Amino acid sequence: MIHDQADYVREDESVHEPLLSEKGETTVDVRESSPLPDDLTREELTLPSPSEPEIARHYTRLSQMNWAIDSGPYPLGSCTMKYNPKFTEDVAADPNAVIHPDRSARSAQGNLELQYRLQEFLGEIGGMDAVTLQPPAGAAGEFTGIAVAKAYHEHHGNDRSEVVIPASAHGTNFATAAMAGYDVVELPSGDDGRVDVEALEAAVGDDTAALMLTNPNTVGLFERDITEIADIVHDAGGLLYYDGANLNALLGRGRPGDMGFDVMHYNVHKTFATPHGGGGPGAGPVGVVDELAEFLPAPRVRKRESGSGYEPFDPDETIGKVHGFGGNWLVLVKTYAYIARLGDEGLADAAAKAVLNANYLAEQIDLEVPYGPFHHEFAATAGDRDAADVAKRMLDFGVHPPTTKWPEMVPEAMLTEPTEIEGQSSLDDLAAAFNLAYADSDEALDAAPNRTAASRIDQVAAARDPRLSWQALDEE
Amino acid sequence: MSGTGGTPYAPHTDSETAAMLSAIGVDGEESLFDIPAAVAFDGEFGIEPRSERDIRAECSRMFARNDDLVEFLGRGHYGHYVPSVVDHLADRAEFLTSYTQYQPEVSQGFLQALFEYQSMLVELTGLPVANCSMYDAATALGEAATLADRVRSTSGDVVLVPDHLREGKRAVLSNYCAGAELTVESYPMADGNADVEALADRAGDDVVMVYAESPTVRGCVEERLAEIGDVAADADALFTLGSDPVSLSVLQEPASVGADVVVGEAGALGLPTAYGMGLGLFACRDEFLRQVPGRLVGAGEDAAGDRAFTLTLQTREQHIRKERATSNICTNQAWVALRAAIHAATLGPDGLVDLANDCVRGAESLADRLGDVQGAAAPVHDRHHVREFVVRVDQPAVAIAEDLEAEGFAVHPIGEHLLQVCVTDLNAERTDGLVAAFEEVI
Questions:
Q1: Facing A172 at nearest CB: one of B119, B278, B328
Q2: CB distance A462–B172 less than 8 Å?
Q3: For the whole model, what pTM was predicted?
Q4: Of the residues A94, A159, A214, B165, which has the fewest C-beta atoms closer than 10 A?
Q5: Rounded to whole angstroms, how far apart are CA atoms A45 and A25?
């Protein structure tokens, strides 16, 4: 398949769609109209002043120069780029849902009810006893979970300084542990791509606050020794943290709570199909076992003791807050709608089809996949080709390429997660794109991509001379 | 979709599923799962799958259980009218269903939109670097504190914040500070503004950051920002200023008063009141460029020599720098930033200035009217206000707020005898009703 992305080029100026500022700016004398005294105001404000028709065209053109799930396959490993059901947008657009967060509980019963129900859904799905919806993204969920773990240890008089993380983990895990004030102990992967239990035993001790683990891991492998891993960590007095990025593989077949995990986050924009929005918003609710519930952020939502209605409450030993208000509400509404649409069987089927798709796709491509059996994603290796170049060439064949050069345990990795939304024919298209690009000449790879709005962008040069605003461009 | 009960969002027919299983060489989907029996889940969640129509009806019934109130609420979360064009353009699936621009050649559209968003914030703040979003104002403030900890050479560990600060914002800041072993301390207020003399007395070697807001959480325009900036500079502390893009359209440019970092709630543009969902504004001086948290879009060139955009300076970020990253943030609020940019473009500078001026006049006028009600005094602080202000009531504030709610109006009780009222373009036409209700319940 061939795909020519829409493009708008002003050849005389060597630019694609002009910037809004290039379409005309207006300067307003602020002090002329402001009721405030001059010493409290700025002198003037200069910004673009396009008409609505110009705005409609500008952003429509920009949208046409942007790949999305609705454009075609988007198998970014670890990102779970599922189709985002349209009806969830309509559910979240309900004008009665967009109330102010400081309303009294008695006047916000509808929103509190949805929050309560979603807490219950997520608790069931993860096998967790208590859930907070407040963290606004996966990494914020990690930060929340590790802060909860820290509060738990401090509450019990345990001074622990380390978080253990497998080398193959998401970069956010390491950054989160550091943000929470922990030293990171990096655990090398075993020969089979999983946690090396002996290395874990050696790494874990009195200083261990937690082990952060993704399961299946970042090359799609289930940690078969999870029970032993949990015992080792718990015996040392540590807690087991579950990174929910790969939960889509387990829906209905395995629950972190049943595997010994004490605390986890859910990436609802991955597992529960809320739109990724060009980078966000997502949401990263956190679930915990009973022993940790009293440390969760405030407030959570519960049923009133009277039996009718819902109320917010602050857990006894709460860590406080991780978002100024209650998190990314509109995303949480879409999450609820998606889970309710699929139900038990739909969720389990999503996992089954996601795993089926990954395994089928891996069968169809000519690249080697060093580790298995994998689940919803696999890390193929581009071998002696440059994975980033192969990816650029794939762009010419009507697909988005996988995540490249990560995780590092696979050389020239192409981490691929097709999700359940692709059917056989689109997986065949994806495989063809892989195989054509992989087999192409060095020259073709170097020259790629050719059919995208922009040709290959020199990112090194862009970083060497950062120009981060139209003001910076104007100065040149 | 396969048979009944499967996900409606997988296209597989039963025969396709069979063909794919056969191509893999297994006899059923179950064989693809490598989960030991001891930890496998064979129970049920108890969630019945339902139709779109059912769920829409259920949620609509649920949301209708929120009382129909006219909200005069603010304190960090603001509603302004969002033009229809914002929804229609931002909801284009090419924007909404895309993700982070890891392949810039095929993602020019979103990158350019974010570059334009950054540029608008550069104009509003006067600072040369703006990232393309944090989660909200509170987390942006937390990131500013950890940035201060990284860039300041002093051995200090104190972050000074105004006594008038939203409790939730302070709680978030405290969590970010805890990991960096920073402590948060308040400085006092003088009639709704910072008590600059008290602040100057407190500021010393142990301070890494001084935070001030304009408008404050009580809606007061901070009148001595440049002096606060000087106090921070004298202590070799970072000066972080909190604001929002509507207020910044008319208030003093942060760079002109010595702000090193600007944070705030950029969701005042582009988002309706959304039960607290936000958009964290983060801008700073050039010298902190390599310490900025979050994504940055830069301009560069493609192989054809045309201008093109790309995520840049990614070596700051978690996916490359891991535990030495400037922040753990990955997924952010990009789509909300897109909405804010479209909203700002729709208003243009004239519209933004008009909106901000109306926020100043509306607060002043409503404060005067409520202050005239027997048993109430407003504004409590003798300052200029943006959108909101504090009212003193003779009776207990909580009881008054409850009575007002019964009349169909929501306001904030913020102290034993203090209420806070926020007026914007969305509720300006309902002020007569609020004043009448005040007269009724007081």
A1: B328
A2: no
A3: 0.98
A4: A159
A5: 10
